Amino acid sequence: xxxxxxxxxxGDDPAQNLPVTLGLIRAAAADGADIVLTPEVTNMVSxxxxxxxxxxxxxxxxxxxxxxxxxxxxxxxxxxxxxxALKTDDPDGRFANRSFLIAPDGTVVARYxxxxxxxxxxxxxxxxxxxxxxxxxxxxxxxxxxxGRIGLxxxxxxxxxxxxxxxAQAGAQIITVPSAFSPVTGAAHWETLLRARAIETGCFIFAxxxxxxNTEARATYGHSLxxxxxxxxxxxxxxxxxxxxxxxxxxxxxxxxxxxxALGHDxxxxxx
Length: 272
Ligand SMILES: O=C(O)CNC(=O)[C@H](CS)NC(=O)CCC(=O)C(=O)O
Prior knowledge:
By secondary structure, this protein is an alpha/beta fold.
């Protein structure tokens, strides 16, 4: 099985981001990908609520989602659209940060709203308040596909290991972590956290990432990563835009869990 990770620098104009993303999806398909994965907020990276309100759509009329569904069907591949920013019926006007798994016939087989919101102050000059603009989800999602059972997560979710354990114990063999990581925390934590989640769960981890200077106010870390269930980095997308291909064998999931069966060794305990 072959996966293609799409690494892009989405800006604040969805109409410009779409053709760039489609071009890389086609390149990965031409290179034999069975599944192509894109980063968090593939359609639009923006820090302006006003601009998002002007340019974003609800799921049922979103032109990016329609184009990705048509492209999956035209190419006959699986598509993991890491996430799209979408309008919702939220009374406070917050958007959804929603991941989609699209089958080769163009149908959406799974959708997941990011649960954990990135509300942090990294330094005096760098802070994020994702929950002001986005409405968090409240359910974990896994999909059974011919490529394996795929658990869906997004970016900051990566720091909540119980979500990953739950997905793995529910049968996930692959977990997606589409991201738009900050450059500072990316350098400090990205690879370590992804490898830890892979080792803890015995799952393949596929993490397509935003990279570079997305807008004047926002930059991202890049380094799209594919990690084996044993914790090896199989592929690293570096810092430029492009595709990173990785071949994987689902049998490695059982091989890894056979060597370290920790996933089945949970025990109840008390305190603190
Ligand atoms: O803002 C948007 O449009 C979409 N959301 C994001 O890009 C989010 C919130 S700012 N980014 C992250 O979760 C990065 C997490 C991270 O960097 C870490 O955990 O260290």
